[in-house]
């Protein structure tokens, strides 16, 4: 079997798909995307295709090693996201060729389903108690929301109080056992992160996410000393080498690699194993499309430390197209009682509607995250 073509499709709302075709008539799909940099990742995919055309797609470890190591310069969000989508598509082909799901090739599933959470609140969170109730009524047992709007290095305690009011409203509406994750989203700097972490402690959160940006990981020690809430981090880390120092530091309780950013199934599986060796939980990051979610679930099936899965159904980013729109059979993601079942079909376990993908790729997108400003006119982290 030889690879004959590698095609990318930039599709709404903010995704990029890749299709690898072979001379055996088997094709595989992946989702190589870095939100807001889809065209850059697609260009990197095209560059990496030089290593793949004419080669046997089943030699995944060799292809991954060449795509990563053959370039003198390596790593970073764009390169690793491009590798990620191609890696997913190669696994999809291998599973389809053998007639088994990817998780069977990784040793077989150790769970039948995994808990999922739903996003609420949007970029500027509001009316969150009502949204949490709606999620609960649809069977979800956990939600995540952005904690704050813009926040200066040192900011008003009124903004802290707003966060507390929103969380308290959810807790009062949903009760003590409902899971609440608060995403600081890198918007909060070290001085205010300590304050927020301490003030949120009484609400018994599921986790606080990215209390500071990953590049400020040295601040996590001090934040951890201000609260017992589990600290989650990792969507902006792209390889096992990025995660190495984080895990060695010992202050992160949950890692959140994204299999569409962190080198695909091959690399994320290694990262998850590293985390397990440090007794750290896994909550894969996935506010993306159906191919990405399928790849995530293949990993959830075989990673012991996975405990919950992000998914984008109904997320505020999905304007015009949603998670299930590109699938021939949307029922493959079977949500029930706050869980989603591990797909059992060959490869990634989904069937992508190629005609729909080509139709929407003609429309494309140029999604960018908002550019925010503080009251003084300076740039604000989003």
Helical proportion, percent range: 25-40%
CATH fold assignment of the largest domain: TIM Barrel
**Separate helix tally:** 12
Give the full name of the CATH homologous superfamily of the largest domain: Enolase-like C-terminal domain
What is the CA-based Rg, rounded?
20 Å
Molecular structure report:
Strand 8 (231-233), helix 9 (240-249) and strand 9 form a beta-alpha-beta unit. The radius of gyration is 20 Å and the shape is globular. Helix 3 packs across helix 10 (264-277). It contains 12 helices and 15 strands. The chain folds into 2 domains: 3-100, 2-Layer Sandwich (Enolase-like, domain 1); 104-348, Enolase-like C-terminal domain (TIM Barrel, Alpha-Beta Barrel). The chain is α/β, with parallel strands linked by helices and 382 residues long. Strands 4, 5, 6, 7, 8, 9, 10, 11, 12 and 13 form a 10-stranded mixed beta sheet that branches. It has a 3-stranded antiparallel beta sheet with strand order 1-2-3, with helices on both faces.
Notable characteristics:
382 residues; alpha/beta; Enolase-like, domain 1; TIM Barrel; 2 domains; 10-stranded mixed beta sheet; 3-stranded antiparallel beta sheet; 12 helices; 15 strands; 35% helix; 15% strand
What's the structural blueprint in terms of helices and strands?
Layout: E1 3-11, E2 15-22, E3 27-30, H1 38-48, H2 60-69, H3 77-98, H4 102-105, E4 113-119, H5 128-137, E5 142-146, H6 157-174, E6 179-183, H7 190-200, E7 207-209, H8 220-224, E8 231-233, H9 240-249, E9 254-255, H10 264-277, E10 281-282, H11 290-300, E11 309-310, E12 335-336, E13 339-341, H12 354-361, E14 372-373, E15 379-380
Parallel strand pairs: 4-5, 4-11, 5-6, 6-7, 7-8, 8-9, 9-10
Antiparallel strand pairs: 1-2, 2-3, 4-13, 12-13, 14-15
